[in-house]
Design brief:
alpha+beta, 4-stranded antiparallel sheet, 6 strands
């Protein structure tokens, strides 16, 4: 039983709420996955040292601008977490990361080579308007040189942040785009205006600024490790559950 803003909430109500929100199974799966990680790490002789927990805790404090122990404790109280629980959570995440590296580090480069296309990037500009006729009109005006893509995005895009960046969408990887949009974008020419394409926000015009070749950076290495590790968890979880099922 816990108290939040002078309102008492018991564990049974938390469980009931998770069930009504269709989140209970997910939480249970995460808990069981952690048990699987613990067992496998023990079998592999993998441990997390206190100095590693301290270093990660310090990094989190810097990230949250927690200048001293008092600030850290106040933040933990606000999160309804004890210092021991916080450190235990850090330890769990570090253990999972070390286990993933132990199991799959040697597979990362082969995976990258096999899935290289997924990790290609594109420097992309996007202009979204609410109506197809407006999108078509802007497309023709841009094609005729009456207005630049960037100016049109700055004036007409439905998203304020994208307007302020003249339509700049970022540098998404191919895997982060829907297969249909990825196929269109990666078959376009640099500088070509694409669209209109209907989306959830309205009607899109797209402009490719640059294609960026896939490269095995530290970030991509971690993404691949996470994929391999998650796939392993999903495949091993049924066996783990069967091993720990009560005997009738």
């Amino acid at each position: 039983m816990v108290s939040l803003e002078n309102v008492t909430v018991d564990a049974e109500k938390v469980v009931d709420f998770l069930k009504r929100q269709m989140q209970f199974k997910e939480v249970c799966q995460r808990l069981i996955s952690q048990n699987l990680i613990e067992q496998t790490a023990q079998e592999q002789g993998i441990e997390v040292e206190a100095v590693e927990i301290q270093a990660e805790g310090d990094a989190q404090r810097r990230q949250r601008r927690l200048e001293n122990a008092k600030d850290t404790y106040s933040w933990l109280v606000d999160q309804m977490v004890t210092p021991d629980q916080w450190e235990a959570g850090i330890r769990d995440r570090l253990l999972a990361k070390k286990l993933a590296q132990h199991l799959f580090e040697h597979q990362v480069e082969a995976y990258f080579v096999e899935h290289r296309l997924e990790f290609e990037q594109v420097s992309l500009y996007r202009l979204v308007v609410p109506y197809e006729l407006l999108a078509q009109e802007l497309f023709y005006r841009i094609e005729e040189g009456e207005i630049s893509f960037y100016e049109a995005a700055h004036l007409y895009d439905v998203d304020g942040e994208r307007r302020s960046h003249c339509g700049y969408e970022g540098r998404p990887h191919r895997w982060a785009l829907s297969p249909q949009i990825a196929a269109i974008i990666f078959s376009a020419r640099v500088g070509e205006v694409i669209g209109p394409i209907q989306s959830e926000q309205g009607y899109d015009l797209l402009r490719v600024e640059e294609f960026i070749a896939a490269e095995l950076t530290d970030d991509i290495r971690q993404i691949i490790l996470n994929r391999l590790f998650q796939s392993w968890l999903e495949s091993e979880l049924p066996h783990f559950l069967a091993q720990h099922a009560p005997v009738s």
